[in-house]
Amino acid sequence: METLKNRIQGLRDQFAQAAPQVLDQAALQELRNLYLSRKKGHLTQLFELMKGLAPEQKPAAGQEVNSFKQYVQSELDRLEKELQAPSRSGPSVDLTLPGRASYWGAPHPVLLIKERIEQIFLRMGFSIEDGPEMETDFYNFEALNFPPHHPARDDWDTLYIDDDLLLRTHTSPVQIRVMEKKKPPIRMINPGKVFRKETPDPTHLPMFFQVEGLVVDHGITFAHLKGTLEYFLKALYHDSIKIRFRPSFFPFTEPSAEVDIGCTVCNGEEDDCRVCKGTGWLEILGAGMVDPQVFKNVNIDPEKYSGFAFGMGVERTAMFSFQIPDLRYFYENDLRFIRQFSKK
Ligand code: DAH
Predict the structure, then answer these.
(1) 170 lines ligand 1 (CB under 6 A)
(2) How confident is the model at residue 152 (pLDDT cuts 50, 70, 90)?
(3) Which residue lies with its CA nearest to atom 5 of ligand 1?
């Protein structure tokens, strides 16, 4: 009799464990068979077991087995009803409705080009430096050899915070900050934001990005400058890009040059090209040999060291890479524009 009771208790526990796992009709049928199948179901076996008991034990045993059978049947009925209820019988969403598209972010084209530029210079062993966007007159102008009231400052007008503080007009002040901190050899680039007093138009913005470069060591010559920039421009565009150096003027370099590439839009073949205006050339960066006066301003001996520097506008570079006709598109935040450059 005790064996029978134990057996029933064990089966009851097993049933209670199995019931919550029943999630569809097939599983329900399996559970039903396991307990109620006439041939091998647990209940049939329990009735078999009863047969071997003494006659006086049979009524009590019969009660035990029957009450277990009722429990099993009522539980199976409950599960059956649950499976038919809407929440269990199928999804409550309307699968015929159109899906909600999820938005995938895309890198901004300026960021893409900035990273491409960084990768090329990192490969050449340059470090990446940083500097403040708000500068003093000394770093933005004076240390770079722009004396107070010098007319060269007129090309670099900006927003002044007070008489001495301004939003930097170029990334060149980072040259000074790096040379103050580190002794040569120096090989660095500095990508960052710059500000000018400009009204936005297709070729001007009041805020844009530049990448500055500086190399200082013993025996650095213009040939190093030329070789470095040629390697860079070929890596950024393509191997057969045309490159030319034009004499120019910057207060902080001597000699100075402006560097042009062959027009990436018309290849110099269209007289009415909107991008190169028919000249076949696009001005891509300013460069030169560091002026000895700049070295003196940071206590580097110009008799021992020489160096070159360069600076380029990132939006312009992106404009030529992606053939974008108007600089203002970069900052209008029109997602239809920005998403075009994702490599997804
Ligand atoms: N700072 C200059 C500008 O904003 C660009 C430039 C020219 C940077 C010559 C340089 C350089 O480092 O050597 O127009």
Answers:
(1) yes
(2) confident
(3) 311
Res 275 pLDDT > 90: no
Instruction: Return the biggest CA–CA distance within the chain.
Output: 122
With respect to CATH, is domain 109-341 assigned 3.30.930.10? yes
Query: End-to-end CA distance of the chain, in Å?
Result: 72
Q: Can you give the pTM of this predicted structure?
A: 0.71
Domain ranges of the chain: 2-84, 109-341
Output the CA 85–ligand 1 centroid distance in Å.
74
Take residue 65 and report the two structure tokens written for it: 């087995």
Task: Calculate how far, in angstroms, residue 278's C-alpha sits from the geometric centre of ligand 1.
Answer: 25
Q: How far is the CA of 55 from the centre of ligand 1 (A)?
A: 110
DSSP H helical segments within the chain, as ranges? 2-18, 25-36, 42-51, 58-84, 86-89, 109-123, 137-140, 173-181, 222-236, 292-297, 314-322, 335-338
**What pLDDT shows up at residue 19?**
86
Atom 8 of ligand 1: nearest residue by CA position: 311
Q: What percent of the chain has pLDDT over 70?
A: 98
**pLDDT at 157 exceeding the cut of 60:** yes
The answer, yes or no, to whether any atom of ligand 1 lies below 6 A from the CB of 288, is yes
